[in-house]
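Blinded run. Sample ID left blank on purpose so nobody reads anything into the name before looking at the predicted structure. Input follows.
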Amino acid sequence: MIRQPVHTVAGGAHLFRRDTAAKLGRIAGRYLDRYAADPAALGEALGNRLPSGIAEAVHRRVRAKLERAPVENFLIDFEDGFGARSEAEEDEAAATAAAEVAAGVAADSLPSSLGIRIKSLSAVTGGRALRTLELFLTAFARTRRDLPDGFAVLLPKIAAARQVERLAAALDRLEAALDLPERRVAIDLMIETPQSLVAPDGRIAVPELVGAGGGRCRTVHLGAYDLTGTVAVAAEAQTLGHPLCDMARQILQLSLGGTGVQLSDGATNVLPVEPHRGTAATSPAERAENAAVVHDAWRLHYSDVRRSLSQGFYQSWDLHPAQLVSRYAAVFSFFLEGLDAAASRLDRFVSAAGQAVLTGSVFDDEASGQGLLNFFLRGLASGALTAEEAARSGLTREELETRSFHTILERRRG
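Blinded prediction complete.
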């Protein structure tokens, strides 16, 4: 199973450089220093929703993450984040971004996952989108053949499965023409139109879209704001907590469960942007206003991320580097808060050789055993849990690596 990044950070293609991820980490680190310099300050910044018993560990791990690997999945954006630019400007940006990716591969400075978002394959922008894809891959292939692991093309504003088929066919052709490894480029889908969620005849459209990718589809993302805006939800009501978004998430889970396709939630669009720029804020009133704006945005983002996690969406989007603070605080606290109970339940269940057990008032059977195992797998993958903490589950490293609770029980019984 491919490790799923905890987030996607998108940035305009014209701005992307080989060290972009490190720069975003440094910006986030400055926000942490300025507005949450210690565990108590971080807890207060998040609305006192960070339990005191884990605050120090969360703060320490957030800081380490921002220094070591601040961005897990970066999207080089030729759509919304690129804006309205001329054909010549997009041609140049595609070639420049490809050169920067190649340099980043050589320097080992890229995030663990990387991709590009092209424009829609509609009649209006489809030709432009495929030209950008071809220019990018051609420019990269002139320098090297080893595309970054997990490289993907995100297709936005999908109206029909034939658009996904068109992208898959273009990738088949380009990989062959450029002597790139076959089927190395994945396809990610953005579900942000009603047609990409529910087909005109009432069928759930998502499985057909995934199938149209010919086995390339890796992740399906929820585009919350385009989706809600398309059905006339007012701007002030367009949030990740809107009932339409809840319904969309549930449709994605039910239609893609067990397929191996990963799911990603949308973004929090209220950003921690200082009204008075950082250190230029000289008066106490300006500094207080900065802190209030940043903290309010962090609290909303923290709540959104925690809700996504609780609903089984382990990846979602970030739009501003300062959101990396609340992102990792939410992810790390989610797993650290649940560690003791999950470890006790899993250890007890495995020790009973897989016989259903009652732990306190909680009944566990094999299905819940897999859920408990998933908790530790996700916690390890996100960096929220250490190997020592995962060992409290009673499972060995080898057992965790099977990723299957049934397999663990069979091996212990046999």
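Unblinding after everyone has recorded impressions. The two ends are 25 Å apart (CA to CA).
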